[in-house]
């Protein structure tokens, strides 16, 4: 999993290219119950999982889809794919994400009762991590359609943009839920990066939505996300990078609101290279404009434009 994330995030060459051939981990509960000297379970030796399934195995399956999403976004920026071919590839990856979720047993669905059940087994944070990956990969896949949502009459652009917003909303919601259930809160650095991406989707709603309920909800999520990012920074000073990236995005919106969500080389770095700050995004021909103040994210809704 780290190999997949780091190959894009910090531009390191992959060390495990034959990901499909790797055996999947055994059931998490079974692994935790093993004692010193116990033989490997048959399920592990046969590259299968037990009936109760494995959270770590599901994360690895999702990482295989992430590889394809990263590749698609890179080819889109380079101009190697577009039009009907691009849409077919997006549809295929969307079906892969849907298929992954449809294959899960009910006890692994994203519900509060399941979060609590896994927490009682000492696996709450891992369960949340599975869905953080799932929702983040979904928002990465459909992010490029946020630009078309405002500038295209193609129905599929609006459909996919709405899917991006739905994934970002679900990502925020499960992070909030993780803080309400003991032993489930996610406190690792990657949470900061994916929360920044989800926050920019909320900014899209603030800038372009004409529905008051959506705008109010987006403002509330931005406030909550800013609070969580601030809490994480107390543990991880390196998360200053997340704030500088969010500020760079804010500046890009001020310089050109209409171009701020276009998938180009700058946006690709913003979405994927989580360990590096990004330079200011320069768009020629657009005068700076006042959109909203990053400093106001943590304020009350009435102080937000």
Automatic annotation (TrEMBL):
GO terms for molecular function: DNA-binding transcription factor activity, RNA polymerase II-specific; metal ion binding. It is found in: Nucleus. Keywords: Metal-binding, Nucleus, Transcription, Transcription regulation. The keyword Transcription regulation applies. InterPro entries: TF_fung. GO terms for cellular component: nucleus. This is Transcription factor domain-containing protein. It comes from Mollisia scopiformis (Conifer needle endophyte fungus).
